[in-house]
Input
Amino acid sequence: MKSILIQLDTDPQPSVFDRVVAIDAGIDHLFAYGGVTPETVESLVHGAIFTRGVTDLSQTAIFVGGSDVMAGERVFAAVQQAFFGPMRVSVMMDSNGSNTTAAAAVLRARRHVSLSGTVAVVLGGTGPVGQRAAELLALEGAEVRLGSRSQERAAATCATISARLPESRLVPVSTADPDSIPATLAGASTVIAAGATGVQLVSVEARSGAADLQVAIDLNAVPPLGIEGVEMTDKAVDRNGVACYGAIGVGGTKMKIHTAALKRLFDGSEGVLDNEAIYRIGESLES
Ligand SMILES: NC(=O)c1ccc[n+]([C@@H]2O[C@H](COP(=O)([O-])OP(=O)(O)OC[C@H]3O[C@@H](n4cnc5c(N)ncnc54)[C@H](OP(=O)(O)O)[C@@H]3O)[C@@H](O)[C@H]2O)c1
Output
């Protein structure tokens, strides 16, 4: 039975990046659809679930992607709502690389720090990648300081994560004033900068005062970079005792997780690969 991946992309043109990864993951046939909305998803899902016998549905799967992560979340939910009983296929959501990037960043941090019980900072924590990274750090038992230019947005994002992880310890932090960064980093073992492209969030001075910092990960690949002094190709580069990663340094791990998650879709028909599930797949690659 040939494997078929149905790529549902919320952008008008389905992502070339996601298509290349799918082919490299060994998918036999890739059907890519663009401009997918929750309203148009049902017939696409029915096409997937009504063609093959129930036992063969493990060889059909759905990938939800696109640049708009919120739109992707809505399509991901609509796909699952279109399933019923055994009429389902496995589905993965990775709009804008958000889940695989967050998983890669946290897994890389975990190589250097035992996160449980430590303080981890996520700057740009209200964006799709930052929010997911914060959730994974909280899952690991870290106390997470979640930074935003807006205290309200930071608090709202913390509340969203806390609703999913009631035991988590999340502290919203306003980083509107660059002078707030040293205090935000004080006592932290880990910082993940997940701000928008081309925005510097941490200066060399702010970082050099963070005496407890063990890992600094910057996901922004567009200069100026998010953490001054961390190069985009850094991969566990020791800079004054801090293991540093840039966006490209994390990229290899992200690609491995993306590929492994696509393969995992075909292990059965009930897989729902969301942020945590994708993280767990990444974790399994570490051992
Ligand atoms: N390496 C990879 O494979 C990979 C994959 C995907 C994404 N990325 C990178 O990961 C980073 C995060 O992605 P994302 O999609 O979550 O980013 P995003 O939504 O564009 O931005 C994240 C947050 O940055 C803050 N921000 C925006 N403009 C700002 C400014 N001028 N000054 C300070 N803060 C600002 C915003 O938070 P507030 O408004 O709340 O302050 C926003 O929520 C990006 O740099 C992206 O390029 C890397």
Q: What stands out?
A: The chain has a mean pLDDT of 97. The domain at 100-250 is CATH 3.40.50.720 (Rossmann fold). The longest strand covers residues 4-9. The chain is about 40% helix and 20% strand.
